[in-house]
Design a protein that fits this description.
single chain; about 240 residues; alpha+beta; four-stranded antiparallel beta sheet; 6 helices; disordered N terminus
């Protein structure tokens, strides 16, 4: 195994979503109630059940990297939340979706620049790229070759490829990587802890995340919230969480 790369890692930095396409931020406008601008409105129990199901569906779509579906569900959630106390949770999930989508766009760009002989690093493990094809990657890891379909790459390998392309000295890149890790299917408490630490590191350097780390505490369980009328029956499933090593 060679100890050097066939080229220096690139010093790129992904821009924050708000700095690129405003549509990616999924900003939710304040809704004005009749006669009282921006007044927070309590939701009916039916609205809360619908909002809970919609946010869980958006979260599951995000974990499966079905961004179009996630954004569709978020648009529904925006309308349901109106100007209620639940709007902040909609906005946080929209931000998580935007950051994860940007991360995956960066990964796709990095994948396109890979070539045989490139050495990747993940958690101090060295991974050598053997062969790259548009839909398949062969790497050598711990003395053996491994073949993966591009759409089925392990989360650790996805992050290693992203790290090779984008400088980890840029804290904005940690924000994106944390979003990818936190939203992945099968994310463990340890993964969430690491994502939270990266976000805190970014906030300590004065990067404004608008409360994004709180998304880790959002469970979208509104069953105990006060309602305008009597509770309505409804069942939701726990959101599935991409498998990380």
């Amino acid at each position: 195994m060679e100890d050097s790369l066939p080229g220096e890692p690139r010093e790129n930095s992904l821009p924050l979503p708000a700095e690129t396409d405003p549509a990616l931020s999924l900003e939710v406008p304040a809704v004005e109630s009749e006669g009282v601008p921006n007044e927070k409105q309590p939701l009916t129990s039916e609205d809360r059940v619908a909002l809970q199901a919609t946010l869980l569906a958006a979260r599951e779509a995000l974990s499966l990297r079905q961004f179009e579906q996630a954004e569709t569900e978020l648009a529904k959630a925006e309308r349901l939340a109106k100007a209620s106390d639940y709007l902040a949770q909609v906005e946080r999930l929209a931000d998580l979706t935007s950051y994860t989508k940007e991360f995956m766009a960066g990964f796709s760009a990095a994948y396109g620049n890979l070539e045989g002989g490139v050495e990747l690093v993940y958690d101090e493990d060295r991974i050598v790229v053997v062969e790259v094809a548009p839909q398949q990657l062969i790497v050598r890891f711990r003395g053996a070759n491994h073949t993966f379909a591009k759409e089925e790459l392990p989360g650790g390998l996805v992050m290693a490829i992203h790290d090779w392309e984008f400088s980890q000295e840029e804290l904005a890149n940690l924000v994106f990587k944390a979003a990818y890790m936190a939203s992945a299917q099968g994310a463990t408490p340890e993964h969430l802890k690491k994502a939270r630490a990266w976000w805190r590191q970014a906030e300590a350097a004065n990067l404004e995340l608008h409360g994004l780390p709180l998304v880790l505490e959002d469970d979208y369980d509104f069953s105990g919230s006060p309602a305008v009328d009597s509770p309505a029956p409804g069942a939701t499933s726990t959101p599935s969480s991409e498998k990380l090593p």
